[in-house]
């Protein structure tokens, strides 16, 4: 199958440039040519006339929980601590079906072609990856962490109850080996408290795991060629994790200058998930839960400043939503923190691909890359609102439609 996208504007997510009047030719799953708009059509081409449109790489969501993403559409009377917890108590079959539907919605309606599924109990996100990779369905590319590793009673075990509780170096090593055996692409640990149980004594300032425990997890993952991401909100938890050798920090609400300097020196990447964290607060506020909202605001208010300092220091930043956020809002919030619009679009594409180690294949529009692409009306470099005007989504060289996603035979042919 060949596709010719003709007469488009092209966003270069590597050089942060825009090129006008371009043709993009796709053969099979990869981009074969990027050339002048005068390129001739070939027999069998499916032609997309894209005048007035921009082609850019498919977007990345590096921190998501597909099985409960529909919780973001629940009303204000169902705050995160209630709605997400209810989803996680469902039978695994229902949770897997919700995950499939939520992935489809985010792919089709928001243009997210790659997701790092950042934790689910019972290895659900590894099963989800198999559903899309091996059939019967198709969907976004899934990079899986398996279950979250947490200390007994730590974040990930309060309310959401999805964490695998481990204590001591030996238990940590055994758990990492088990998760890798099941097929995880990354390992995730919670090295601080969080927001979901803040009304029950959990708190982002609490440091969880010991340095030796984190180091044990890193050693086991790295010697098998896998990276480690950590839920880390407290500055001290981030410092401990960076010293132990982790690869990526998630959230970072309370980062201080020392923690940021350590991240820079160790070349550790960062996924702030600002849109998701802000929505946790907004849902409590809008639901009339003033006391909990105030508790949340105290610990999330410093995040924008911390992200701005990370941008200034040149830390590699990717985009993620957590449960309640939006990838489009996340991009806009990065701009509010000091990124240019091209830089924020690159954070959601090329730079996120770099974090995952997938940039040789995806995250940019160039010859030889896998054709994970968006065609949007307008110019998102001038107006980020154009991201909401999706005309086409292309995943692995195939036009994404609801029929294609749900058609088992179509999945086998891809």
Question: How would you portray this structure in words?
Answer:
The termini are close together. Helix 2 (92-110) packs across helix 3 (124-134). The strands form four sheets. Strands 1, 2, 3, 4, 5, 15, 16 and 17 form an eight-stranded mixed β-sheet that branches. The longest helix is centred in the N-terminal third of the chain and has 19 residues, at 92-110. This protein has helices at 80-88, 92-110, 124-134, 169-181, 211-222, 235-244, 257-266, 274-286, 290-300, 303-312, 327-336, 341-347, 350-356, 402-406, 408-413; strands at residues 2-12, 17-27, 30-36, 45-49, 53-57, 59-64, 112-117, 141-144, 149-150, 164-165, 186-190, 227-234, 248-254, 269-271, 373-377, 390-395, 398-399. The chain is built from 15 helices and 17 strands. Strand 2 (17-27) and strand 3 form a beta hairpin. Helix content is 37%, strand content 23%. By secondary structure, it is an alpha/beta fold.
